[in-house]
Design brief:
With 387 residues, the protein is an all-alpha fold. The chain contains 19 helices and 2 strands. It has 2 domains: 255 residues, no CATH class; 73 residues, Alpha-Beta Plaits, CATH 3.30.70. The protein is globular, with a radius of gyration of 27 Å.
């Protein structure tokens, strides 16, 4: 009766054995499937150096921004002391920390054909960073941005501390990623609705002139609420890779949209790929690099972490489209961008933008010292509503 009904103790081992044999048979069939044939690994002939080059570029730019910050602080303190003590000139590079001014001045240029007088460097740097994205994906975010560098080091600290980073589930990750695009849409709508006269009046107002000073004072005189918010973002960045950049940065959202036009992308050679999945595990943006032939996503910032993790020769690269109908050895010849080449293009664009601005006399805000003397010490009292 037990054997017939299958309710007895003797039938259970038999069913377990059948299930086990069936599972083994399915595994063997799957392994023998043409789609699951194991590929031969052809290891790289040279060690990947992309992360060493990228980290060097990151820290050089951090050092440049630190130098600009010190010089700007000394310039502000000179006027706060009543034009006494050490005087240093205002560093135009500080305008790079005013992306909204850069967007407003770009809108003014496109509307009038004239270069704005106040914070012109913000516009030139803004256009330079957009051009980088058009040519090299969102490379600014992972190669130059100091906030991106800080964010990356925070999640790497978290990985060292907890042996892992935490991934937000897809049902929450997607709507959170929309936030930065909503913020970008708000700024684009607001600035896009301003006339050329309104833009000029705003940037030429006392508030617009000392917007950089107000930014400095925000960090010098940070309130409790701001400190808590920044601290919370830092903590979240330890646990979640690039939390600020991934979910909240409208500047990154704009550069991501611009990067969709880039001819350079992370590209996977299906013939050379051994399907190890290491690239997808290494990707800070959680992109499915191991399943795609090319990464079109606006979330890709050309950090090349996936390329560094790939063990196979010519399987993954930051490159132009491969040569069609060519052998593997020739498919990527003169198509792949070496990390040094990426760094060189970034430097060429950055220095080229600065050179053009300086040579045309549109790099520095040319205002008399008397204007700064009457505005800088009272920057905290100025409101944008006054313009």
């Amino acid at each position: 009766m037990e054997a017939v009904t299958g309710d007895g103790d003797h039938s259970r081992p038999r069913r377990c054995a059948l299930a086990s044999n069936w599972a083994v048979a399915m595994e063997i069939a799957e392994e023998l499937s043409p789609n699951r044939q194991k590929k031969t690994l052809v290891r790289r002939t040279r060690a990947d150096g992309s992360q060493r080059v990228r980290h060097a570029a990151q820290w050089l730019f951090v050092a440049l921004n630190a130098w600009i910050g010190v010089q700007f602080y000394l310039w502000v303190r000179y006027y706060e002391r009543g034009a006494t003590g050490l005087y240093v000139s205002r560093p135009p590079g500080v305008d790079g920390w005013l992306p909204i001014a850069g967007l407003m001045n770009t809108r003014y240029l496109l509307t009038t054909g004239r270069v704005p007088v106040v914070h012109p460097a913000a516009m030139f740097l803004f256009l330079g960073f957009v051009l980088m994205s058009v040519l090299l994906k969102k490379a600014f975010c992972s190669w130059l941005c100091p906030v991106g560098t800080l964010s990356e080091n925070l999640w790497k600290l978290g990985r060292r501390m907890f042996k892992r980073n935490f991934h937000i589930p897809a049902w929450l990750d997607v709507p959170l990623r929309v936030l930065k695009y909503l913020l970008l849409a708000f700024f684009a709508w607001f600035i896009g609705g301003m006339s050329a006269e309104a833009l000029e009046n705003f940037m030429g107002s006392p508030y617009g002139i000392v917007a950089d000073v107000k930014m400095l004072n925000f960090f010098r005189e940070m309130g409790l609420t701001a400190a808590i918010v920044i601290g919370l973002l830092a903590v979240l960045s330890i646990f979640v890779q690039n939390f600020w950049c991934r979910y909240l940065c409208p500047y990154g959202a704009l550069l991501g949209i611009a990067s969709l036009a880039s001819p350079v992308k992370i590209r996977r050679d299906e013939e050379a790929c051994i399907d190890c999945g290491k690239c997808a595990k290494a990707c800070p943006a959680n992109l499915k690099v191991d399943e795609l032939v090319q990464i079109r996503s606006a979330e890709c910032n050309a950090c090349m972490e996936c390329v560094a993790a790939c063990p196979a020769q010519d399987a993954l690269q930051l490159a132009l489209p491969a040569r069609k109908n060519a052998e593997r050895e020739q498919r990527w010849f003169h198509r792949t961008l070496h990390p040094v080449a990426v760094a060189a293009v970034i430097a060429y664009i950055f220095l080229g933008v600065v050179l053009v601005a300086r040579s045309t006399g549109h790099w520095q805000t040319n205002l008399p010292q008397s204007d700064y003397m009457s505005l800088v010490p009272y920057a905290d009292e100025l409101s944008h509503a006054a313009f």
